[in-house]
Amino acid sequence: VYVSASAEPTATVAYPAPTVTFEMFYRAEYARVVRLLLALTRREIAEEIAQDAFLAAHRRWDSIGGYERPDAWVRRVALNGAVSGARRRATEAKLLLRLSPRQSEEPDWSDTTTEVWTAIRALPKRQAQVAALVLVDDRPVAEAAAILECNGETIRTHLRRARIALAARLGATNDDLA
Amino acid sequence: MTSLDERLRHATAERNSVSIPLPAARTSRLRPAILIPVFASVLVVAGGLLLLTRRGGDDPARIVVASTATTAVEPAPGCRFGAPEPGCPAPDSTTTATTVTPTTVAPTTVPPTTSTLPTIGAMSPTSVVGVVTEPSGFPAVDANVWRVLPQSGLSKRVGPLVVVLGERVLVAGGSDTYDNNVNSGIFALADGAVLNADGNGWSHMAKAPEPLGFSNAAVWTGTELLVLTTTGRFLSYDPATDRWKTLPQPKLTPRAFASAAWVNGEMVVLGGSDPKPISDGTGEWTPRTDGAAYSPTANTWRLIPRPSLPETDYNRGWIGNRLWSVSLATDGSRDTSATARSYDPATSSWTAVPDAPGRTISLAQGVAMAADDSGSVFEYKPSTKTWVQVAELHHGDANGFGSVFRAGERLIVDTGSGGTNGRFLAVRQEAGTWLNIGSPVTTNEDMLLVTESGRLIGTNGTEAAELSYTDPTIGVRACVKADFKVSSIGDDGRSIGMPKVVLTNTSASPCIVNGAVPTGATLRINGQWVPPTKLDDTSYNSESPQNSGGLILSGKSASVDLWSSRLKTVDMGKTPSCPWSTPDAVRFNLPSGETIESTIQLPEGCWHLGPLTGWLPQR
Question: Which among A133, A126, A136 has a CA at the least distance from the CA of A157?
């Protein structure tokens, strides 16, 4: 059974594995994946990267649809895309080519939130991914480890370092060290 | 001063309030004629000509929500489903049902007529797809591909204990959930299996006395497996008798993620962290900084005095008889250097390791490797206590360095799944040539293992595969020059005549040419009909994207893998009607200097996908 374990306000979704379709998966997870990426990049790029990730999933849905956690797979692809400089440049170029008026306006973030996003985006790639998953998306360390394909100890180390760096950049107290 | 957690909560709440509708429509798009100069200027800024070109060729589709009555309507080039935009048809305003449909739009970055990407079948007058050519007498067909091994029969699991027993591979325990409490009695697993030395079968193990879960400390002594579980229980397993035994417990608090090694006849366990967060989802990740060693001969544990393990190191691993601890320095935005020191449990002393020539240190399979930003790979030589450059890493735009280790003469680099060149790259050190060897199994949980003799096996506990490897220095892939004469393709993409390929062996030695043809097709070489000889289904298994060379079909998409290049995918518009799942393989000798002409006859009604699936170009 594929169970979405997102901590987002929408209800947890459970799909019987044999009947989960790409459409169900896409509808349930698209917004969540975009939100995950908002900590790492601006909205229109987040949507493009999410599109690419779901497109990749669609192409391989015969196999990915059978995974225990297709949502973990698509998050990993999206997170890698969000921190890959080359991919982001390509995505930005694609967006440039469309020369909108753009459909997806950047949310009107408060100063506090803007500062948090800026600080997270300045972290080293892996730390930024871990911060987005654990600190913002509120995912357990074990799940972050599964998504990023590394062990829990590595995640915790990145997490500690990310918290220290974020606290320093934001001029905030690090509750983790209290 | 506010706390970091308060700020994060604020940002998270604000983020969660953002509405993210499914993509439905775009408001405008420039015409392709206008796009080209715009694109050219973007290239300069982005510095990504190749990437963008590939993306233009590979990613023509997007996923949007269409509001249509019953079926999705293919949008005009440059348009998407949904609301009207200039030059695009208006949607049906009376519709109610919704569907999610992958749509094909014309590539925006490169006009199709100027694309140099090899495509297949009806999309191109010539076909270039992966086929192995090798010198005479060299093992054929299964070189550089992952041989799919029998399934273990174990259920899918997260984080099983995977240990190399000489030439065998043991898989035990793990968990059937990703949740916080992965090691609770509800989810932790106790069963396991051992892959035979020949890789052709699994032997199921007796269940462990308690669920093993994951993140246990385990070592192989050469005769038995020793496991210190995260509950603090100490077990041994003897594969010869298939029996588990309970052994004396160490005077250590239970721990997860401890570092363990078989050192001088003892099992040494060091560090780790409090297992509560993964056993019941509560508690903190409190580090353990102590350790102990177990002697099977004396059947007793001894505590290791004051190992003083650092709490915040980045990476730990055993290199020989010493535990390495790697720390990273950062300037706040990026890691700037990696430093390591090693711990000798025999003397309880730490020794500084000479500075690594890069920002990354990987510890795996008993080998310490470092890589710098330019792609140079270094190996630490304990005998001289120096870092020695062993290879140049050219890994495309793989996302990060990942881990690197040795398998016999090969270096194996795990670039992670973000790389456009695939997950794993291999190199033969002397040649310095990198080769994409794909991922071993089709799920995302595979682990890569090296047996004592240097065999490379990947497994996720349920599935397994072994890499068959060919020495790339022989130059086997440069012996055939192929000339394509494939033009008999109708407008509807069907094969009209018999596609033709002319091959010339331009090397001084004979070649064995391997090809794959669809089931039911017949092949003619120099006027003689040749019945396809089934050599190895797994070599060209269309369902296995880990293949190095071959055709991969998935629904309407067809992909070809050009060895070290990334997959090239085209949308054929329709699902081919031929049974491509198990294509037959053919092979024949091609003497030096000789030329042959091959043609292929497809069954009635088949969609043409290229003769013999094509030939690998000279490299």
Answer: A126
CB neighbours of A80 closer than 8 A, spacing ≥ 6? Answer: A87, B399, B416, B417, B418
Answer whether B55's CB lies under 8 Å from A95's CB: no
Contact between B556 and B45 under an 8 Å Cβ cutoff? The reply is no
pLDDT in tens, B518-551: 444 444 555 544 443 333 322 232 222 222 233 3
The answer to whether A34 touches A79, Cβ cutoff 8 Å, is: no
CA distance B120 to B259: 50
pLDDT score, position B424: 62
Is B352 in the A-facing interface, judged by CB distances under 8 Å? no
What is the reported pLDDT for B243? 95
| A38, A97, A115 member nearest B108 (Cβ) | A97
Of B257, B273, B275, whose CA–CA distance to B216 is shortest?
Answer: B257
Instruction: For residue B240, count CB atoms less than 10 angstroms from its CB and return exposed for 0-12, middle for 13-18, buried for 19 or more.
Output: exposed
Mean pLDDT of A37-65: 81
Measured between beta carbons, which residues in chain A are less than 8 angstroms from residue B25?
Answer: 103
- Compute CA B186 distance to the chain's CA centroid, rounded to the nearest angstrom: 31
Contacts of B64 (CB under 8 A, 6+ apart): B22, B23, B24, B25, B80, B81, B82, B100, B101, B103
B217: its two tokens:
């400390």
For the stretch B171-218, pLDDT in tens is: 999 877 554 455 666 678 899 999 998 788 899 999 999 888 778 899
Helix ranges restricted to H, A18-110: 22-38, 43-59, 61-64, 70-83, 85-98
Q: Give the pLDDT confidence of B576-593 residue by residue, as tens digits.
A: 444 333 344 444 455 556
pLDDT surpassing 60 at residue B486 = no
Answer for the pair B326, B361: CB distance below 8 angstroms, yes or no: yes
Chain A touched by B63 (CB under 8 Å): yes
Q: For residue B30, which residues of chain A lie inside 8 Å, CB to CB?
A: 97-99
Map residue B180 onto helix, strand or coil.
coil
Please state whether beta strands B403-407 and B386-392 pair in parallel, antiparallel, or not at all (unpaired). unpaired
Q: Which residue does chain B place closest to A144, by CA atoms?
A: B178
Nearest C-alpha of chain A: how many angstroms from B61?
7
CB contact under 8 A, A142 and B180: yes
Quick check: A74 contacting B, CB < 8 Å? no
Characterize the bridge pairing of strands B456-459 and B557-561: unpaired
Retrieve residue A175's tokens. Answer: 């509750």
Q: What is the pLDDT of residues A63-104, one digit of tens each?
A: 777 777 788 888 988 888 787 654 454 444 444 433 333 345
State the pLDDT at residue B209.
Answer: 93
* pLDDT of residue B332 exceeding 80: no
